Amino acid sequence: MRTTRTAIAIDHAFQVSGFDAAQPPGTYFVDIDEEPIDGLTFLARRRVGAVLYLPAGAGPGNCRYALPLTPAELDCVLPPA
């Protein structure tokens, strides 16, 4: 299992399950979990889960929400490649 943290810039409001209101555009951190695909002659990985970090408030000392996402939910949130 490999986990990578990256910052993603989202230029549109988006909806995630578990929250009534849409999240505003901005830069968000996401941890992406990947596992190797066995049986191939080259190294390949597939996404198996992710955690999206949402701010809980506007101040710098405020905590964040850690929202687990399925790979399908992550694809809906990520900007197009």
Give a verbal description of the structure.
This protein has 81 residues and is mainly β. It has one domain (2-77). The chain has one helix and four strands. The protein has one helix at 71-77; strands at residues 2-10, 26-36, 45-55, 64-69. β3 and β4 (64-69) form a beta hairpin. The longest helix is centred in the last third of the chain and has 7 residues, at 71-77.
Largest β sheet strand count, sense and barrel closure: 4 strands, antiparallel
For the secondary structure, the number of strands is: 4
SSE pattern, N- to C-terminal: EEEEH
**β-sheet strand percentage:** over 45%
Q: What share of residues is helical? A: under 10%
Mean pLDDT: 85
Protein structure class: mainly beta
Q: Outline the low-pLDDT stretches.
A: none
Count of spatially separate domains: 1
* Quaternary form: single chain
Major sheet strand order:
1-2-3-4
Distance between the ends = 24 Å
Radius of gyration: 14 Å
Outline type? elongated
Number of helices in the DSSP assignment: 1
Keywords:
46% strand; mainly beta; 81 residues; 1 helix; four-stranded antiparallel beta sheet
